[in-house]
Design goal:
about 350 residues; Isopropylmalate Dehydrogenase; 10-stranded mixed beta sheet; two-stranded antiparallel sheet; binds nicotinamide-adenine-dinucleotide
Amino acid sequence: MTKKICILPGDGIGPEITAEAVRVLNALNLGFELETALLGGAAVDATGNPYPEATQKLAREADAVLLGAVGGPKWDALPREQRPERGLLGIRKDLNLFANLRPAILYPELANASSLKPEVVSGLDILIVRELTGDIYFGQPRGIEIREGERFGFNTMHYTESEIRRIGRVAFEAAQKRGKKVCSVDKMNVLETTQLWRDVMNELAPEYPDVELSHMLVDNAAMQLVRAPKQFDVLVTGNMFGDILSDEASMLTGSIGMLPSASLDQHNKGLYEPSHGSAPDIAGKNLANPLATILSVAMLLRYTFNLEEAAGRVENAVKKVLAQGYRTSDIFEAGTQKAGTKEMGDAVLAAL
Ligand code: NAD
């Protein structure tokens, strides 16, 4: 059966970078059916709804979704319900995407882009697996009320063992495809919820004898990520800790235009997108770096379709263009060759 990929270019630089990623997908000639729909501000302009029904239908029936980015100043004054970001939250919830995968890779050629010393980060390749639909971000009860004559704010942290188990499995399975190490991050010395997290991770470990499991408290993990980040392969953690650690890890690489991401459901259906936003400041100028979106295609091939060889081809093509010296303006340095969005896409296609 033909596999379908839903393409959502979105706003700002979204259409430019997804166009290059689609060229890469087509060049691989894997027989996918691609269909494009509207999300975010572009959808608001056309239909009044940031996640219109036609997009919902296509996203639900597709095997995977490739997204550019949404948002921009044009839509910032709209009521909350009509903001482009609502479209993004809407599709994540609609598709039950509970596992967020964010690699932080630093190619040796870009080691100077990091704020850390090149020897600390050069060759860095870690994957943060963040639980996306539970934890204190969604727990009830929550609120701000008056208690005993003063304002009182409260939230509830909770996880069921099945929620922990399913994200744990994603991490172990991802590690099997990589360096075979999982570090589970918690705060078990203070929070019972995360004691359960640690217990369930330990219970899962014997099912993956080829993967080495370790544990780390979140405060130490934050420190180790800047002290010696190359000690990690896969890091798995809950929604709140993952929110913070994945941003910290992505900044180790210093180049936002290079970082892909995946959000998966229970059947490895996924939404794939660059980690950056719609960059309205450079939209329409052929300046955006398309590599994060092209690398998101590699993740799509690997995680939804299990096409490891094709994923590796895309990643190697990206490595090759960096080694050849091509740089978009966000990663440009003296002595390299400046390329626009399209030229970078051309170079990747040539390397493929
Ligand atoms: P941003 O990531 O869009 O831009 C931050 C900076 O990085 C800008 O200077 C931009 O030019 C640069 N940049 C980002 N991607 C780049 C690329 N591929 N190549 C070269 N340079 C790149 O973040 P922002 O400015 O805070 O947000 C802009 C808009 O994007 C807002 O409307 C925000 O809500 C939205 N946003 C969307 C997503 C998403 O769609 N997932 C994520 C974050 C922000």
